[in-house]
Amino acid sequence: MSGLDRSKMRYEKIGSDTDTSSTESLLSDPEEHHYTRPTARSRAWTTFNSVLFCASVGFFTLGCIQRYPSNLEIMKRTSFYSPVWDSIKLGSHDAVVSGSLWTHNASDPFRDFTTPNPDVEAHWQALEDIRVFPITSAQLRRLGKDPAVSVKFPPSYGLGDDAYMAQVDVFHQIHCLNLLRHQAWKAYDHEATIRRPPYRPLHWIHVSHCTDILLKNIMCAGSVDVVTYQWLESQHRPWPDFDVNHKCRNFDDIVAWQEEHAVPVTWGRNVTRPMGFQEVRMPDLFFELNNVTREFVAAASKEDFEQDHMGHGP
User: Fold this and answer.
1) pTM across the whole model
2) Which of 40, 41, 147, 192 shows its CA 20 to 30 Å from the CA of 209?
């Protein structure tokens, strides 16, 4: 074949039983690939996957919302039903309930401290101002009350035929505490006798401290549970129904926890301060009430000026 003119030679493809060999597939011209119209079945699968994806995103978002409820929702879940929850915008905040025995915070308008205070009395009267508002028969039933014996507002008030009287319980609680406060301070001006000497200033500090602590805890808890009204035999004016529904913590469980975890009583009572331990400064009022100076107490025996905890310590 050396004498052949190679420039004139022509190569031709040898036919085979199939024209779709792997070599032809790999070397085929890209222009020979044609678009294939999706079948009805493939379109259905695409639609199904899209719907499934959107549903998954929706359920995930909803799960996140339900997993992290608002503060208001948490308060509602831990309270008995109250119509107040339907419309109140109730916030919450962290606070230190200041209950110092010896330090009088002048900005606290509700603490008498060592003597009755007319300004404090005025603030208490404003705080326990109990107002009434309308609720419906459906809301009454959710409270476990019978509309048949509950007090309606008169038609002349223009509140409609389904308006029943109710009040917010927290203000009733403050009223009860204020009554006890008044009873305690009644003894302030009593005539001293040998059998009944006048109370020391420390007694009134104690009274004002306990009252103040209870008031601040009532206000901190801020119960929006509802007191309804009923017609009571022999009474011509609405009478509060003091059988109020609450969602309560099991107090017996708290008592049981303390019994299980508390150390023996004598352990708390016999604890004394070690030498060299850092002290918290005692307010000046302590020394004024004992009619001594800070320096005198420092030089005297500690036991001579040990202050009774008045039920507040071990």
Assistant:
1) 0.72
2) 192
Contact between residue 167 and residue 226 where contact means Cβ atoms under 8 Å apart: yes
Domain boundaries in the chain?
Answer: 49-78, 85-248, 252-314
DSSP E strand boundaries for the chain:
132-135, 164-168, 226-230, 239-241
Estimate the share of the chain in helix, then strand, then coil, as percent rounded to the nearest 5: 45, 5, 45
